[in-house]
Automatic annotation (TrEMBL):
Any GO molecular function: ATP binding
Protein name (database record): endopeptidase La
Keyword list, A-Z: Hydrolase, Protease, Serine protease
Organism lineage: Bacteria, Bacillati, Actinomycetota, Actinomycetes, Mycobacteriales
An annotated GO BP: protein catabolic process
Residue span(s) of domain PDZ: 112-190
Organism: Mycobacterium talmoniae
Catalyzed chemical reaction(s): Hydrolysis of proteins in presence of ATP
UniProt-listed Enzyme Commission number(s): 3.4.21.53
Length: 339
């Protein structure tokens, strides 16, 4: 064999080997980057993102966009290097996203559950801000369970065996006087439906000696109309603030966005407290690229947001009420609290 060809072949071996490594070997990292944004005042797949049925709603203008973080798993060495060199993606150890001892499916299920909880909290926070009265609200119904098919999440429970209840404490105290196998009468109100009464045979539970109704209840603001959130394949709790703002905007004459492109992020509790989130710089990039000029930032995320921003107006929020006030201030040309 020609020596020159042999030398060339020898030189190509490590190059080919490195190419194979880049294409085949996976790395224990996950890539995080800007994800899609969704206008909570708009539509997705022909459905209102925040759909309110059973009461009057008001016209809205502008955008109130929730933001997300994209993530990519199962990266090859070549993909990881390419994403890292792009400057738009962050590589983090996989264990931070998918903890050891939990499967990817379990983590995804947890994220989905967090998202569903954020929807419920967003509704409660908005209704509380709008001064709807509290009730003993059903948050979840065990299925199978004694109440499955008789009570629904979202029902307001008004009486047990004719005795009126206004708080979870009163409701629980009456249940503690029952026995498994006993039939109880529950008066309830249901959204977009007439009130009703359910006859329920109480079950057994190993953690109590009194009757088991099979519902999770909470003291929460209640309204007779339905609020539905129509976003699929989104995980985590960080859409709560923007969902709440959309509910408030649709139920009031305020027109919160006032034709502006507002984006933001933040968890929300049922009492309207806004909490911090992860990946805020990625969300800010996504918002800016979508066209936003104002970004709502949980106070605890302000330092990180401020350190990597030169284009968005960063508005600091601690509560839903503060966020509403800040948007009203912006719409009238004022200066809201900033990071």
């Amino acid at each position: 064999m020609n020596r020159r060809i042999l030398t060339l072949l020898v030189a190509l071996v490590p190059i080919v080997a490195f190419g194979v490594l880049l294409a085949v070997v996976t790395v224990p990292y996950v890539s995080l980057g800007p994800g899609p944004t969704f206008d909570t005042l708009g539509e997705v797949d022909g459905k209102q993102v925040v759909d309110i049925e059973g009461t009057e709603t008001h016209p809205t203008t502008g955008h109130l966009n929730m933001t997300t973080v994209s993530q990519r798993d199962g990266l090859t060495l070549g993909e990881a290097l390419t994403l890292w060199l792009s400057g738009r993606e962050q590589l983090v150890p996989r264990d931070l996203v998918y903890p050891p001892g939990k499967s990817r499916q379990e983590v995804d299920e947890d994220n989905t559950a967090d998202f569903k909880q954020s929807e419920a909290s967003a509704e409660y926070a908005a209704l509380g801000y709008l001064k709807y009265p509290k009730a003993v609200a059903v948050a979840d119904v065990s299925d199978p369970g004694p109440s499955a098919g008789k009570l629904q999440a979202g029902d307001a429970l008004d009486a047990v065996n004719g005795a009126r209840v206004a708080t979870v404490e009163q409701f629980t105290s009456l249940l503690k006087k029952t026995k498994p196998g006993q039939v109880v009468s529950i008066d309830y109100r249901r959204k977009n439906a007439p009130p009703g009464t359910a006859e329920i045979t109480l079950g057994h539970s190993k953690d109590r000696d009194y009757g088991f109704l099979g519902v999770k209840v909470m003291d929460a603001p209640w309204a007779p109309f339905a609020v539905d959130f129509n976003l699929a394949n989104i995980g985590g709790p960080s859409a709560g603030l923007m969902f709440s703002l959309a509910v408030v905007d649709k139920l009031t004459n305020g027109d919160l966005a006032a034709s502006k492109f507002i984006a933001g992020t933040g968890t929300i509790s049922a009492d309207g407290q806004v909490g911090p989130i992860g990946g805020i710089t990625h969300k800010m990039i996504a918002a800016q690229e979508a066209g936003a000029t104002v970004f709502l930032v949980p106070t605890d995320n302000c330092y990180e947001a401020r350190s990597d921003n030169d284009k968005l107006q960063l508005v600091k929020v601690d509560t839903l009420g503060q966020a509403v006030d800040a948007l009203h201030t912006i719409s009238t040309g004022g200066q809201p609290p900033t990071c």
